[in-house]
Amino acid sequence: MPIQYFAEQQLFLITTHNTAYAFCHNKEQDLVHVYWGEKLPYPEDYHIFPLRVLSSFNSSSHELLAEYPDRSGIQNNEPCLRATFAEGTRDVRLRYATHQIEGEELTLHLKEQFYGLEVVLRYRVFADCDMLARRVELTNSGESPITLEQVLSGALPLPFDRDNFRLTHLSGAWAVETQLDRPLITPGRKVLEGRLNYSGHAANPFFALDALDAEGQGATETRGEVWFGVVQWSGNWKIVIEQSRSPYKVTRVAAGLNDYDFGWQLEPQTRFESPWLALGYSNAGFGQMSRNLHRYEINHVLPKAFAADLRPVLYNSWEAVLFNVTETAQMELAEKAAQIGSEVFVIDDGWFGQRHNDRAGLGDWYVNSQKFPNGLKPLIDKVNALGMIFGIWVEPEMVNPDSDLYRAHPDWAYHFPNREPITGRNQLILNLCREDVQEWLFEWLDKLLSENNVGYVKWDYNRGMSEPGWPEAPQAQQREIWVRHIQAFYKLVDRLRGNHPGVLFEACSGGGGRADLGALSHFDHVWTSDNTDPLDRLPIQLGYSLVHSPKTMYCWVTDTDWNSQYKYDLRYRFHSSFMGSLGIGSNLNDFSPEELAEATKYVAEYKTIRPLIQHGLFYRLTPLSETTSLAAEYLAEDKRAGVVLAFNHRPHFWQIPRRLRLQGLAPDAIYSLRGDIVEGEPTSLSGQALMQRGITPKFTRHFGSALIQLSKNE
Ligand code: DGJ
What we know:
20% of the residues lie in helices and 29% in strands. The chain has 714 residues and is α+β, with helices and mostly antiparallel strands. It has 3 domains: 3-301, alpha-galactosidase from lactobacil brevis (Beta-galactosidase, Chain A, domain 5, Distorted Sandwich); 314-501 and 549-615, Aldolase class I (TIM Barrel); 629-712, Immunoglobulin-like, CATH 2.60.40.1180. α5 packs parallel to α6, α8 runs parallel beside α9 (481-499) and α10 (534-547) packs parallel to α11 (570-577). The longest helix has 23 residues, at 593-615. The model has no long low-confidence stretch (mean pLDDT 95). The structure holds (2R,3S,4R,5S)-2-(hydroxymethyl)piperidine-3,4,5-triol. (2R,3S,4R,5S)-2-(hydroxymethyl)piperidine-3,4,5-triol binds next to loops.
């Protein structure tokens, strides 16, 4: 039973295969967190430690360890819920009332002490991946509106017997997404957040905490305890990690919607839901954390339609031709794309309106007749005849001021009266809170997908918010736009998916600005980064792998070398892109027949290892902080086959490539190895030997790569 309630102790116990999460309600009906960590043998093990209040200046234990901190009492901690009631009361006092347990879901009902605010805390258990997800649902059962000012999905005190916590998080910028950061937690607050109306390049809505031992050692890829979580939201989010100094050095995390410029008028008899906060604990390091998150993403987050399917090899023409998409050039590229083995052909930006650069045309979603005199049909027919799915780029939530749409409906973009709107990439954001905008968007997108044989949509979003104003709406609703926009965005995608169930949807935001589990519960995968330099991609892709599965990450092979002093060979480019779902963005018209033949060989090779890459268990074989040589292993669930991708950069002196100790293999089984292994090493070894002694990959050059396949001898 994944969820139990022990009436005598008033204890809720949630267990997965390896973990446990416990909290209780005390006699005052406060919810007090008890435990989150490795599963313990007996229910009695989950007793609450009595915390002593040493002086009237210290918080009481229920305040220190609150399962869902409200804004009441004398506390210095981040509350999950802040609200103002009709009389101006800005104090929320929640008390446990009742609960239900239904299979893998726990519903707790809390009531505000005086006002008609009903609060539901909902927990879902995912035993197969040692994870749970929780959120809060708020209903106004009173007669006056309530203004919500902060709604976090949940808070978690970490075990206070360990106090040297280290935070692992992902930060970045455009073209430098998902970079690893590892600060130590000290008393005070550390806030990770997105506040531009998209989850953002700057930070990813994810945290992981591990504790340093007496020797200063924290968790590694394979060892140690890690507590982690992800806010499943594509809009403004916030994760607060805070530590108090005394009397108990409690470290806690609170996470959910960002309260930055947020407000929500909760009218009587209406409901508000927070995003889900997914949580997990691993006692086998960061590698296990990632594998649990990958399984969670594939089994429980991705839209069901394609969750279990392999992602196709795609060709995208963006980097080859930018906005110069014409029927002839696209057809020429489509032929080459099919020749090398692509399964989807995606026409990117520039096919519509007067879109010849990024200064005009967004919002005018008619086919540009200079570029496509006969509409899209001839190109789509050609792509289909070549055996490929046709894919198309759209950026529905945006408008260029230089567009017919904006000239007709300037009020459709977010704006403040008496303010000149600031553009980003020469564009403004459409106000998706407006129902007329929502309907207009649905109609043209639905028409595009109904009238054309489109099997793939790349949905872009290329700027952060400024002037978040909706002048037609009442004052009280102005700060709702952040949440309303994302709700409308999700609803729009879901409606389209409902009408076009065979279409794959890719989320993109100037590269990886929408690489979050919120987007991934409506989209099938994401575009990871506009940086397609194969060397730069490696840390971006490995950083992405901390949270997300390889299959949700498209990786293109292009001609771009951002570090122009290096020249990578085609093999290295492909191997770098083999790390997730494979895409090609090179200008194939510039490829020689030999290069086309070589590319064909790599695409065919990728298809043979694709089930392992996309559905295998993923192991980082080198630390994330490593830069000169990086490696990852993809292993079948039944451990019968695997593939290793390794990369070697300019070694110092005469350094030989590092030996790679593999992970997760069946120890007694004998594995046959083939591929890039240095001469003289055995090509058949036990799983134990491969894990203990490892193998040495063979690199033929600086900036070289190696691909090694292993199969278990039966
Ligand atoms: C940003 C995306 O990340 C690129 O792949 C491309 O689609 C451009 N937008 C098009 O404007």
